[in-house]
Design brief:
5-stranded parallel sheet, TIM Barrel, binds zinc ion, single chain, 12% strand, binds glutamine, alpha/beta
Length: 756
């Protein structure tokens, strides 16, 4: 029985790669040190796969920054601004593409989300002058390295159709014009790999997305070339993250020796695939979830595999992870503090490799009774645990589902009811957080390590809030915030105070480059036993006559940035969280808070891959927001915030959320945003960010004024707000004060002009 995974996490169990990279970038360690760390991580990853009994170990999945950028390096598509001097993309050129070159004022290549994951890849830039040449032999070398070390490698490449589908043109040449040249480089690489390996894995997840007509047309001829190049090596066409649907034919007729399909995200496609699988094609069954933390029900998986085996025989069947394990944390063994019962329900990357190994042995009728039994026990424990279900929550959700949440009056009426806020035209505000200084982080750490009492920590935070409120009053901002000094993270902070969440110590997942996130895990029904923010907001409000905004993270953002239980629909989990947020909204309102902001930074991140599924998602996403906010009085002002501005496709849904005010990031793609507002008359109030908070640069009064004037061309003055792009937590105080001073001054000058 053949078994494999599509890729393994790269960071190392203790994020060794992160540290090694950052030291190298800082110049505190040598290239040699970095290479040694990489070699050790790779060796460890391969050993894990081998020990789990997998048939091959993956190579080429390891990357110093990003596996799409690796292909860019392989074909030599270095954008001109990095002035490539030779056909050899060395590691420093590679890092310059990823991170830019601040000293020479060269911006990095753009980065964007890898399908609907939270992993970000570097967007390839294709120019008319590109002459693809084999410029980096990393995958070949790495494969050789594995072989020399006694492993049986299966190299992994992102395929040319996906690569070009995700590319952007830097000079309006059609990226597909370059396919032939790029293909020649792939062919060269695949020829070498095919001569030393049994299989070469070609990742084409684009086949599970809305693929462009052009790409569809070029797919077959392209794979003809690659299959020929592979010689006696076999190509495995891997698809994942969704079903193949309309592209199934394309995949089945690719001429590749094997096809991999995601049976977790695309369960329903199994029968169709088996029925139509060509007689000589291998089938890799992606049955172990590569994107979540839960143990697989091995008995059920085995049953499914046995059926597949009956259908296509055991020689052609492979057991696999649904996608690369890049998207799951590495090793459960490193979780010493996790509740043992919850831990017994989970499997991280290492454990997932073992699950595949066990299934392989079970299917081959080798002895693995004990493991199968242990697994069955864990599955039953999870299914029957009293900790996952809360009848009250279920009832409340069912009731909420029958209603259509809506504010009491339309926006125009609410606007009148909110006049008691006495806000001027172009009200100024911020997005919530103020600088998280070293001092704040140090106090948090000391409190966490029990070096200080709760009382001491609280009074420290209150002092900070006092300072932050005072600073905003001095700046004469109109709507104040408490500054969020008590929050380490906008999702974790809320998760820690809700039932149904748990947290890991080392459950890191790569977000981009050396950056990792540690998502909370939602294991059970969600509720909020006690107020989460009221004490802080109330305290801040007691310090000032001006309105202080209550600051919450929305249900959808909490959902999108967590590992979510897989035994309940996402929309249901989202509704549960929305009800918890609603409780908090109610308590804030009862405490006299007049403005409440609910951040939905991740609304667009949760969008399904395929257009056809988007409306259904947007419907329940918008409903969750409305559920949390609809019961407040007309006189209470609801804000939302989004760190995203490519709104064209979803602007209707954003309007349907019916927040009184929305603040959005806009400095990085201002023109596009305004374009959206030219064609769509956004009905409520809006604050397009007037400066980029990612940079320490202080924007001038004039520049902010110009931006506001541009915005006024599309948004009437009664509905325009003035605010930065996002929270200020990553900034320092001096630049923050200077920037906000200029922001307030610009708003003031415009108000004076209105008076003339
Ligand atoms: N209120 C949060 C903050 O200001 C919002 C952060 C975000 O949108 N990512 O930090
Ligand atoms: Zn933001």
């Amino acid at each position: 029985m053949q078994k494999h995974i599509l890729g393994f996490p790269r960071m190392g169990a203790k994020r060794e790669l992160k540290k090694a990279l950052e030291n190298y970038w800082k110049g505190t360690s040598s290239r040699r040190d970095l290479e040694e760390t990489c070699a050790a991580i790779k060796r460890q990853n391969w050993t894990i796969q081998k020990n789990a009994g997998l048939s091959w170990v993956t190579t080429g999945d390891f990357s110093l920054y990003d596996h799409i950028l690796d292909i860019t390096a392989m074909i030599g598509a270095v954008p001109d601004r990095f002035s490539p001097t030779s056909n050899n993309v060395d590691i420093d050129t590679y890092f310059r593409m990823a991170r830019g070159d601040a000293s020479a004022n060269i911006p990095p290549m753009e980065m964007t989300k890898w399908f609907n994951t939270n992993y970000h890849y570097i967007v390839p830039e294709i120019s008319g002058s590109l002459k693809p040449t084999l410029s980096c032999r990393k995958i070949i070398e790495e494969t050789g390295e594995a072989q020399t070390a006694g492993f049986n490698p299966k190299p992994v490449l992102v395929g040319p159709i996906t690569y070009l589908s995700l590319s952007k043109s830097s000079d309006n040449t059609d990226c597909w014009n370059k396919l032939e040249g790029i293909l020649a480089v792939y062919a060269e690489v695949i020829a070498e790999l095919g001569s030393i390996c049994e299989w070469v894995q070609m990742d084409e997840p684009i086949l599970c997305a809305d693929i462009a007509l052009q790409a569809r047309k070029l797919f077959k001829p392209c794979y003809e070339v690659l299959n020929k190049a592979a010689g006696k090596g076999k190509l495995m066409l891997t698809t994942y993250f969704d079903t193949l649907d309309d592209n199934l034919d394309l995949a089945l007729s690719s001429g590749c020796s094997g096809l991999h399909a995601d049976l977790v995200m695309g369960k329903n496609q199994l029968n169709t695939i088996l029925e139509r699988l060509p007689k000589d094609m291998f089938f890799s069954a992606g049955i172990i979830d590569g994107r979540n933390v839960w143990k697989t029900d091995l008995r059920q998986a085995l049953h499914q595999l046995e059926n597949m085996k009956k259908y296509i025989g055991e020689e052609r069947l492979m057991i696999a992870s649904s996608c690369s394990l890049l998207h799951s944390p590495m090793d459960l063994k490193n979780e010493k503090l996790l509740d043992p019962e919850l831990k017994s329900w989970m499997a991280f990357a290492v454990q997932k490799c073992h699950e595949i190994g066990i299934l392989g042995r079970a299917l081959a009728e080798e002895n693995c009774q004990e493991e199968m039994q242990d697994n069955a026990k864990a599955i039953i424990s999870r299914k029957t645990s009293v900790r996952i279900k809360n009848d009250q929550v279920r009832e409340r959700c069912a009731k909420a589902a029958r209603k259509n949440p809506k504010r009491k009056s339309p926006y125009s009426e609410r606007k009148k009811a909110q006049s008691w806020l006495k806000l001027p035209l172009l009200p100024t505000t911020t997005i919530g957080s103020f600088p998280q200084t070293a001092e704040i982080r140090q106090y948090r750490r000391r409190y966490k390590n029990s070096e200080m009492t709760r009382g001491e920590y609280d009074s420290f935070l209150k002092n900070k809030i006092r300072e932050i409120v005072k600073k905003q009053e001095d700046l004469n901002l109109d709507v104040l915030v408490h500054g969020e000094p008590e929050r380490n993270d906008m999702v974790e902070y809320f998760g820690q105070q809700m039932e149904g969440f748990c947290f890991t110590e080392n459950g890191w997942v790569q977000s981009y480059g050396s950056r990792c996130v540690k998502p909370p895990i939602i294991f059970g029904d969600v509720s909020r036993p006690n107020p989460m923010t009221v004490e802080w907001i109330d305290f801040a409000q007691s310090l000032t006559e001006k309105p202080v905004k209550g600051m919450l993270t929305g249900a959808l953002t909490i959902l999108c940035w967590s590992f979510v239980r897989n035994d309940l629909e996402r929309s249901q989990v989202c509704r549960q969280i929305a009800l918890a947020v609603k409780d908090e909204v109610r308590d804030l309102e009862a405490a006299g808070i007049r403005i409440i902001q609910i951040d939905e930074a991740a609304l667009s991140e949760g969008l399904p891959i395929k257009q056809k599924d988007r409306n259904a998602y947007l419907r329940w996403a918008v409903d969750a927001f409305k559920l949390a906010t609809s019961e407040v009085a007309d006189a209470t002002q609801i804000h939302t915030h989004m760190c995203y501005s490519e709104f064209n496709d979803i602007i209707d849904s954003i309007a349907a959320m019916d927040a009184d005010v929305i603040s959005i990031e806009s400095s990085r793609s201002r023109m596009k945003l305004l374009e959206t507002f030219r064609t769509f008359n956004y009905p409520n109030e809006i604050g397009p960010g007037v400066y980029d908070i990612h940079s320490p640069r202080v924007p001038s009064v004039e520049e902010i004024q110009i931006l506001l004037k541009n915005a006024l061309a599309f948004i009437p003055r009664e509905r325009l707000w003035v605010n930065p792009d996002c929270g200020l937590k990553t900034r320092d105080w001096p630049e923050t004060v200077d920037s906000l001073k200029n922001m307030a001054a610009a708003a003031n000058l415009l108000r004076k002009e209105f008076d003339k």
